[in-house]
Design goal:
36% helix; globular; alpha/beta; 8 strands; 8 helices; 255 residues
């Protein structure tokens, strides 16, 4: 039987999902990061299928979302987009440490996956944490600085006033550099990474992520099976069922 438990790690609400025995014995861990304007409960289908394969799955609530939602407007939260991302990268490590210290998580078998903003967070976390043994990036972007500049340009083109000076904007973009996987290829270390992206995605553009994948292929020359990019020609900003199943398969293979 699959169990779902609500837990609180410091001030982070999470859903902890797994078979009965996962709550009693050591198991591999997959952390699932949801997207912008989503919530942890919206991704339980991933957790269920992963749990069926014997994984401990933890779905945290991201700052300003779900249980952590505030009175801030959608636009106010949007302006905190990168703050949320960097905060979550820190919180992922807090979550990992909690479950490893519990004694029931195999520290050598930990994976990270996210959709959209969660995929962007997954990319950034790869620059910081060697303990991530396998990753899945669904509709995400590893190109932090370039994507941030694109966001700013879109807002300006739509006549939206950004409540920051040019210097403040530049300082924020500069702060992203250390998390920008496209600037730190040496940190990939041939870890198994699966990308899934829809060609028609109008939120997180397909082409820059695909170009990144092509750029890093040479890093996997000795083990090309550890890197994969799934292109869905018919999808926009929504992961297909095939993408869901391939995510489960990836962790089953590499964790």
């Amino acid at each position: 039987m699959i169990q779902i438990q609500k837990e609180m790690i410091e001030d982070i609400p999470v859903l902890h999902v797994g078979k009965d025995q996962v709550f009693k014995e050591k198991a591999p861990l997959v952390i699932f990061i949801h997207g912008f304007e989503s919530a942890k409960e919206h991704n339980l289908h991933y957790a269920y299928l992963l749990a069926e394969k014997g994984f401990r799955v933890v779905l945290p609530e991201i700052l300003f979302h779900g249980e952590r939602q505030t009175e801030s407007s959608q636009m106010e939260v949007l302006f905190k987009f990168w703050e949320i991302i960097l905060k979550t990268i820190h919180e992922i490590n807090v979550i990992k440490n909690y479950y490893v210290k519990s004694g029931n998580t195999d520290a050598d078998r930990i994976g990270l996956v996210g959709t959209s903003m969660g995929g962007i967070i997954t990319s950034g976390a790869l620059t910081k944490y060697d303990w991530i043994k396998a990753a899945v990036i669904l509709m995400g972007s590893p190109n932090y600085e370039a994507f941030a500049l694109e966001q700013i340009q879109k807002l300006k083109n739509n006549g939206i006033k950004i409540p920051l000076t040019d210097k403040e904007l530049q300082d924020q973009i500069s702060a992203l550099e250390e998390y920008d996987l496209s600037k730190h290829l040496e940190l990939i270390k041939m870890r198994p990474i699966l990308f899934w992206h829809g060609v028609k995605d109008n939120m997180v553009p397909y082409q820059p992520t695909y170009d990144f994948y092509k750029t890093i292929q040479y890093l996997y020359a000795e083990a090309p099976e550890r890197l994969e990019f799934i292109t869905d020609k018919n999808s926009g900003h929504k992961v297909s069922r095939n993408g869901l199943l391939k995510t489960v398969d990836w962790f089953e293979r590499w964790l």
